[in-house]
Amino acid sequence: MLKYSHIQPGQRIRAYDFQPMEGRTDRYVEGDVKAQVMRGGAAVLEIVCTYDSTTLCRKGLTIYVPQETDMESDSYDRVVVIDADQKRLVDAGRSENPIDSLIHVVLEDTPFTYGYIGNAGHHFDDRSWRIFLPAVEGKPRESIGDYCTESRGQLLELAKAVRHGYQARLEA
């Protein structure tokens, strides 16, 4: 039996890209399991990404998570099941800036994501904050907005407009 073969379609998981370590930012995706499938001869969990902790903007894409790798460890779980209560707590604690939390909440349950491209360090911040359009496999990721860190709050009104337009289209 593979280490993560107990995970079933319909469950939400967090799959780490690397083993969590002190001093290194966790890198992971979260998503809803759609199926257990074979891909390239390996048993994998097919998920639709609902959150990406990196700037790779994988939200909305189909991702394949191995049910077991050669580097599995008993000291940590590379894949964990998260329930709805855990998700709410995690989402609430994800952001250091309240405006980021607000924008994430406004875009919740839409295919749009909020994030940045660029880098930041102790003495510089060249991040460009944007709202990313739904991912289309095989195409470059498109976005709207382009605000520096200090003025990214202006994206809140844009996020509200995006959500309103998305809901109007669903109701049409």
Molecular structure report:
The chain has helices at 84-93, 98-107, 155-171, and strands at 12-16, 28-39, 42-52, 62-66, 79-82, 113-117, 128-132, 143-147. It folds into two domains: 12-84; 95-171, no CATH class. Helix 2 (98-107) runs parallel beside helix 3 (155-171). With 172 residues, it is α+β, with helices and mostly antiparallel strands. The strands form two sheets. Strands 4-3-2-1-5 form a five-stranded antiparallel sheet.
Give the topology, please.
Elements: E1 12-16, E2 28-39, E3 42-52, E4 62-66, E5 79-82, H1 84-93, H2 98-107, E6 113-117, E7 128-132, E8 143-147, H3 155-171
Antiparallel strand pairs: 1-2, 1-5, 2-3, 3-4, 6-7, 7-8
In short:
With 172 residues, the protein is α+β, with helices and mostly antiparallel strands. It has helices at 84-93, 98-107, 155-171, and strands spanning 12-16, 28-39, 42-52, 62-66, 79-82, 113-117, 128-132, 143-147.
Shape: globular
Overall number of strands: 8
Helix count, DSSP H or I runs of 4 or more residues: 3
Rounded average pLDDT: 80
Largest sheet: 5 strands, antiparallel
Low-confidence stretches: none
Summing up helix and strand content along with how strands pair, one would put the structural category as: alpha+beta
Number of folding domains? 2
Give the strand order of the largest sheet, numbering strands 1, 2, ... along the chain. Answer: 4-3-2-1-5
Helix content: 10-25%
Q: Could you give the distance between the termini?
A: 47 Å
> What is the succession of H and E elements?
EEEEEHHEEEH
Strand fraction equals 25-35%
User: What is Rg?
Assistant: 17 Å
